[in-house]
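> forwarded from #structure-qc
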């Protein structure tokens, strides 16, 4: 290990919680699929796609690094907890994080229920990114003096500072790296830190005294590099500037000196490190044959009257499964808080080294691990390992049903030894299915003839001994039981799908099965029409192995007729608005929606509206054209057992108007309008030359009333929310009373007064309350669902975008659909 003392890098975690959710396709479920994603690809516009996959997994991780760099957990671009998501916008991620142009490698990783990586998809996954943002200005006149003073010109002048640095979120950040130059010419970074412009308010030159922060060997050469690092300035992201290099300087003698004498206690298996003045933590490196066997951080604590910190090296080696015999080098470096560097850790002293030697004690450092296999693993190699320090020989034996067996006897009962039994690793194969598990025990011997026995490792064969098979026929309302019993202790998870397409379904409220009920070997169901032509099976897992029971088909012998309990209702909307139709049909399994007895998909292609189905029994039409005025909306409800059982709802009429027509004749029109939309009010049947004046009295939620009178005389009043005074009038929560006064010469000069009373509300899905629905609203909703954002009462009132009574990912998808059509 070089004597060069290195600074501790501050950990910076950058987790992108915003995943732009695209349309959620319905993929055919591969009921018995593994964890491997299907059809991973990247489009030219930077959209990473993959097919939906099933299994017991926790999350999808996506790593994005420049070509030539290595993947690590610090560069996770997205931790996608939504297991239904199948797209990720790489281009938007690179742009939002101010990444430079270039080729980027993509690593696609899935983790299982325990958080362990399951699959990597990396080969050939790259994306060529072209950045449209400019570099930051480059620091100039960068210099390091022989006494450790680093200086360079500030890239911001005084005016720019006050404009861009009103708070901590908008700062120029200087990224400073310290490089060492070894005698063989090798160049490496030994430390780095971020220095913010707010530290040098109003100064044209930045000066930093590194002689107090970094401690170097006196016989080593060093140089510094400085660049302006990316931060948000006036809401616009910049990439780092070019790197500027200083002249080389000779290293300085350590300012604080050695840590001091380290006390060792081999009997206790620990070391006592004197608490160094100013130190808050120690860096610990344990070497074995010049290889780092262990490294970690140890917080400074006082453990005895001598003010020492204890490092339990023996317990550490046991946890790392390292031998407790032999010689280890231990390097210890003291660290502490620096000043003026936003909390970065900086070196306070050089390293101290000591030698730790253990005596030869016969003990296991690695116990044999149990394994669970399935019939797919029969006749395949299984490796079992045990390791003991000071051991000179090993011997293995097998126990079947409590009786010790020779390997010849074990082979007869289905366990065959494929290697010698006198090594620390043995290879066996299970060849039969008549034994539930085999127990393997290792005996280790040292040179003095002493022996120790390992823990027992089990090789278990997981199988389903008894299960419900075939087809279960039941009447509606009848209770049935399904069973799947494993031969060894296991976990159970029951699954259900439609027989027609194999699409796995969520039990949920539709089937009335609690989550706890599906994790038992016996599943009890009270069947009704929801179970018609469904398929049920059980996934059984144990020790990482998994098998599934045979599928059981459920058939109903009778069902109730479809009954419309609540039919459709007429809906009135303005042009471009949204209409929601819902039917409540008892025992309905399938719904067919029509508009004017025409196919919805065909009419949607004509641009008359956009349609989607939050639930099968709910139809939502958005961006409705005035040509839809008077359209008849109808739904047909079917029971899948017999398509002849049809119950049509009463017709519902869709009324669409392009404006609010007062009608000319002492009318009072009451309407709800959306914040951010134009509002048009007037008279269709007036003579264009006839004069009408409009008076608007708007009331704020606090009760303040303001009166405004239109100075022009016209038949139509258009309230445009982009311009004053309309912008103030049309704030959400306001109530507008609009009085139109005029004379109708078409009716013999009759005077009239008409009134429109409007309530301004937020659009469902306008989560940032700015009058528009876009991707920013979807991103904000995602933060709410992840628990990192709290919605106000107003936001909660408009959060059920798809009108299904829930606030979940389906609302985010609805927002994205609306944004795409905007």
């Amino acid at each position: 290990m070089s004597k060069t003392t290195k600074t501790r890098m501050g950990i910076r975690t950058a987790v992108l919680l915003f995943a732009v959710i695209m349309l959620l396709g319905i993929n055919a479920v591969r009921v018995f699929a593994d964890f491997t994603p299907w059809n991973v690809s990247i489009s030219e516009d930077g959209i990473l796609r993959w097919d939906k996959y099933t299994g017991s997994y926790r999350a999808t991780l996506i790593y994005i690094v420049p070509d030539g760099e290595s993947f690590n957990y610090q560069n996770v671009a997205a931790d996608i907890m939504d297991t239904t998501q199948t797209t990720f916008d790489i281009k938007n991620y690179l742009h939002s994080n101010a990444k430079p142009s270039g080729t980027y490698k993509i690593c696609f990783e899935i983790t299982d229920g325990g958080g362990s990586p399951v699959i990597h998809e990396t080969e050939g996954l790259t994306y060529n990114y072209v950045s449209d943002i400019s570099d930051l200005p480059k620091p100039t006149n960068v210099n390091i003096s022989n006494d450790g003073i680093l200086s360079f010109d500030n890239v911001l002048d005084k005016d720019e500072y006050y404009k861009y640095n009103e708070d901590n979120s908008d700062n120029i950040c200087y990224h400073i790296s310290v490089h060492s130059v070894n005698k063989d010419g090798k160049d490496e970074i030994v430390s780095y830190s971020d220095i913010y412009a707010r530290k040098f308010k109003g100064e044209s030159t930045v000066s930093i005294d590194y002689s107090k922060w970094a401690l170097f060997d006196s016989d080593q050469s060093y140089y510094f590099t400085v660049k302006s690092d990316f931060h948000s300035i006036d809401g616009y992201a910049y990439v780092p500037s070019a790197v500027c290099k200083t002249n080389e300087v000779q290293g300085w003698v350590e300012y604080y000196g050695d840590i001091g004498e380290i006390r060792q206690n081999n009997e206790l298996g620990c070391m006592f490190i004197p608490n160094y003045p100013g130190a808050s933590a120690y860096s610990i490196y344990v070497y074995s044959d010049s290889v780092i066997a262990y490294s970690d951080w140890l917080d400074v604590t006082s453990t005895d009257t001598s003010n020492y910190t204890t490092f339990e090296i023996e317990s550490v080696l046991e946890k790392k499964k390292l031998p407790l015999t032999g010689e280890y080098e231990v390097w210890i470096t003291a660290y502490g808080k620096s000043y003026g560097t936003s909390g970065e850790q900086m070196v306070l002293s050089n390293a101290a080294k000591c030698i730790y030697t253990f005596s030869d004690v016969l003990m296991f450092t690695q116990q044999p691990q149990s394994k669970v296999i399935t019939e797919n693993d029969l006749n395949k190699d299984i490796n079992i390992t045990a390791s003991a320090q000071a051991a000179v020989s090993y011997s293995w034996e097998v126990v079947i049903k409590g009786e010790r067996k020779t390997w010849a006897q074990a082979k007869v009962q289905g366990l065959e030894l494929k290697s010698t039994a006198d090594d620390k690793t043995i290879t066996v194969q299970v060849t039969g299915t008549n034994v539930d598990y085999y127990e393997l025990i290792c005996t280790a011997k040292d040179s003095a003839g002493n022996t120790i026995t390992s823990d027992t490792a089990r090789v278990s064969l997981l199988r389903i001994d008894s299960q419900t098979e075939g087809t279960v026929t039941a009447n509606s309302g009848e209770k049935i039981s399904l069973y799947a019993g494993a031969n060894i202790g296991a976990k159970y998870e029951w699954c259900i799908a439609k027989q027609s397409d194999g699409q796995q379904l969520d039990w949920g409220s539709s089937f009335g099965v609690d989550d706890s009920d599906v994790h038992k070997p016996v599943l009890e169901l009270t069947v009704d029409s929801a179970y018609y032509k469904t398929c049920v099976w059980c996934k059984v897992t144990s020790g990482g192995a998994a098998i599934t029971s045979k599928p059981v088909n459920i058939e109903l012998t009778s069902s109730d007729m479809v009954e419309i309990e609540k039919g459709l209702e007429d809906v009135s909307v303005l042009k471009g608005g949204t209409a929601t139709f819902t039917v409540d049909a008892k025992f309905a399994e399938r719904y067919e929606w029509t508009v004017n007895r025409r196919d919805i998909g065909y009419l949607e292609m004509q641009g008359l509206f956009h349609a989607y189905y939050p639930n099968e029994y709910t139809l939502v039409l958005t961006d409705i054209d005035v040509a839809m005025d008077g359209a008849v909306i109808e739904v047909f409800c079917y029971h899948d057992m017999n398509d002849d059982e049809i119950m049509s709802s009463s017709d519902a009429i869709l009324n669409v108007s392009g404006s609010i027509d007062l009608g000319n004749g002492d009318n009072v029109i009451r309407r709800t309008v959306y914040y951010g939309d134009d509002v048009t009010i007037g008279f269709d049947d007036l003579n264009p030359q006839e004069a009408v004046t409009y008076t608007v009295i708007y009331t704020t939620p606090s009760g303040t009333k303001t009166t405004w009178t239109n100075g022009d005389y016209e038949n139509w009043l258009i309230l445009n929310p982009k311009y004053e005074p309309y912008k103030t009038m049309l704030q959400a929560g306001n109530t507008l009373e609009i009085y139109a006064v005029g004379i109708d010469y078409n009716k013999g000069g009759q005077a009239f007064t008409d009134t429109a009373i409007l309530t301004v509300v937020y659009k469902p899905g306008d989560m940032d309350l700015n009058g528009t629905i876009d991707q920013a609203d979807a991103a904000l909703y995602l933060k709410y669902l992840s628990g990192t954002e709290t919605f106000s009462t107003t936001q909660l009132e408009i959060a059920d975008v798809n009108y299904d009574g829930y606030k979940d990912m389906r609302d985010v998808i609805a927002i994205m659909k609306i944004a795409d059509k905007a």
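QC bot note: DSSP finds ten helices and 64 strands in the chain. Residues 252 and 516 are 66 Å apart (CA to CA).
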